[in-house]
Design goal:
Order of helices and strands: HHHHHHH
Number of helices: 7
Strand content: under 5%
Largest sheet: none
Shape: elongated
Distance between the termini: 68 Å
Mean pLDDT: 85
Low-confidence stretches: none
Radius of gyration: 27 Å
Oligomer: single chain
Number of strands: 0
Helix content: 55-70%
Length: 157
């Protein structure tokens, strides 16, 4: 968006649109939207913490993670697991790492990805259940009761 706004601003300022041919457009487009060294950028991101999951859903984190490791050229399964786990929220990573049965191998990134997705889906399902449960089981308030209802009726024996 900024790139196109800048082009139109240049046209207003000079009276000439800065792109005169398809070759000009293609060259400027590539320079604006494709980094000079995507591999180095991806490696640098994976060596830092900017790629961490934070508040993202696991599916969104996984998509961006897989793009980074592909751009970086990382293929070693154990490295992929280590990088993936390091970026996962600690509660999800801990649940997978301490599974008593069916824990993924540290050399099986696909199994780690699937386990993280299952745990995140289970969390979302539970949150939806809890929000429905709480909205349908709220205790009546004094104002919702008829005036003649004694509050002692709601005390446990």
């Amino acid at each position: 968006m900024r790139w196109s706004e800048n082009l139109f601003r240049q046209e207003v300022d000079t009276g000439i649109f800065p792109i005169q041919s398809w070759a000009d457009f293609e060259q400027q487009f590539w320079s604006q939207f494709f980094p000079v060294n995507a591999k180095a950028d991806a490696v640098n991101a994976l060596e830092g913490s900017a790629y961490y999951q934070k508040n993202q859903m696991v599916d969104d984190y996984l998509d961006s993670f897989l793009t980074l490791v592909s751009d970086a050229g990382y293929t070693d399964p154990q490295t992929l697991v280590v990088k993936f786990c390091r970026g996962l929220r600690t509660n999800i990573q801990g649940q997978i790492a301490t599974m008593p049965f069916g824990r993924p191998a540290d050399t099986d990134p696909e199994a780690w990805y699937a386990a993280a997705q299952r745990i995140d889906q289970a969390r979302l399902t539970n949150e939806a259940f809890q929000s429905t449960l709480w909205s349908t089981t709220t205790a009546p308030t004094r104002s919702a009761l008829p005036r003649s209802t004694p509050l002692s009726m709601f005390r446990l024996p």
